């Protein structure tokens, strides 16, 4: 869920997993051999409701799960897939060569003033367009406890995302519609883990680089027709407990817009996602399209819990080139607006636009 911890994975397993996936592609079999991977930590399941430090070492890279969509889905033939030559997945090694964004480790003193710290790192971070800041504070009340206990009655409705972006034809359209399924945080977590386990035979964390390849393979030619994603959910998972250091800090996203250095404090009207935070609760393969933030403001995202979340970013100085490349390469493919498209970073880097990767842990 839109903030958090990631599980440590051994990169030595990557080559094994890669070979197994290639064998599966070549033979056409649907069998999954990842059961042989040592599962070091649970992905989320109960641990989201327990100690926030229980998910292991801070590490780099990963996305999140597929579920049946419920009554709101189109018919199966509407969501069916067929490969096209424009999105080759025979070689996904480019995912191993993506540069990473700068990572900052502020001291507790530096962490006391969020906007002062952002101003300090801006000259460097702005060259990349995206960065990662590792908090010196941790939440003493896990996000799951906040949403299940402190916010009793908290529920949300997911949206269904079709998972066939790489191979649409001109008759296809982007459609994100309500699934009609309403969840508590715990119920959604159980559903997501069940689907993950069905696919990988375990709820344990898999190497993030492996899952990144799985994502792009699934986009191109996989069997998953849709995923559920709870995006733009009003609320916050920061605790209001007086004993929670992170919740009481100025980095609590409920407080940032009202800080003395923020011009947003002058707004008299509450604007969800701008003056108030929103939650994004995802699963394996759920995603958000390439975009710029409202009014070109900074976007601050805190990853509370669950599996790691992969972000791709483009530096601001390359924004015009990025949009030009997307229009030239993809508007002929899609009738849908380009701002709902999700081309792979490989397509962009081929045209010399720097694409960066960051993983929230």
UniProtKB/TrEMBL annotation:
<dbReference type="GO" id="GO:0000785">
    <property type="term" value="C:chromatin"/>
</dbReference>
<dbReference type="GO" id="GO:0032452">
    <property type="term" value="F:histone demethylase activity"/>
</dbReference>
<dbReference type="GO" id="GO:0005634">
    <property type="term" value="C:nucleus"/>
</dbReference>
<dbReference type="Pfam" id="PF02375">
    <property type="entry name" value="JmjN"/>
</dbReference>
<feature type="domain" description="JmjN">
    <location>
        <begin position="101"/>
        <end position="142"/>
    </location>
</feature>
<dbReference type="Pfam" id="PF02373">
    <property type="entry name" value="JmjC"/>
</dbReference>
<protein>
    <recommendedName>
        <fullName>JmjC domain-containing protein</fullName>
    </recommendedName>
</protein>
<dbReference type="GO" id="GO:0010468">
    <property type="term" value="P:regulation of gene expression"/>
</dbReference>
<feature type="domain" description="JmjC">
    <location>
        <begin position="245"/>
        <end position="361"/>
    </location>
</feature>
<dbReference type="InterPro" id="IPR003347">
    <property type="entry name" value="JmjC_dom"/>
</dbReference>
<dbReference type="InterPro" id="IPR003349">
    <property type="entry name" value="JmjN"/>
</dbReference>
